Amino acid sequence: MTRILIVEDHALVREAMAQTLARLEAGTECVEAMNSEEALARLEESPDWDLAVIDLMLPDLNGFSLLAVLAKRFPDVPTIVVSALDDAASIRRAIKGGASGFVSKASSGDVLRAAVKCVLAGGIYAPDLEPENPAKRADAPVSERFGLTAGQTRVLDLLAQGKTNREIADFLGLSEGTVKVHMSAIFRALNVSNRAQALVVISRNGTRL
Hints:
Strand content: 5-15%
Helix content: 40-55%
Order of helices and strands: EHEHEHEHEHHHHHH
CATH topology of the largest domain: Rossmann fold
Number of helices: 10
Largest sheet: 5 strands, parallel
Number of strands: 5
CATH superfamily of the largest domain: Response regulator
Distance between the termini: 34 Å
Shape: globular
Strand order of the largest sheet: 2-1-3-4-5
Number of domains: 2
């Protein structure tokens, strides 16, 4: 079963997203929350969440702030931002803030489902953007240069320390399956196919993650 938390204050929009994602696959469960407080309470109730879909314009805590809270308290729950604020700056800020995906509210249900499938598989889903700065800052952390989320950065840090997937899982309190999902996403971001190649990329780009 896939469990998805939808955080959106407009009931009609929230219900429409729930209906759209319920068709993702058999057994998909969509739970709705109308604000950040309710969303955090839902996440606290059970550890069995596969994804959170959040709006940026929430009444009690804006979506960017909620992303920061989720990255700290629930690092193994990936997030997708679905928002009418779909300018390049907002998209970049959301991804840098820990979101694994960004979908404009002007998009179709098919696009939303495609984004969810991508993120659940460990990928990053966002509109194509022109580089903010074609020449990546030489002093930028590896995580920033390759667009890694907070959770992926923590896993990469432990990988760089030579820890196995099981050791990483135990250290972070995650399942080994979740660590493997993070590893796959890291390898795609770094454009490598294994741990040894990832370590080479880290070495070439500096050790600061």
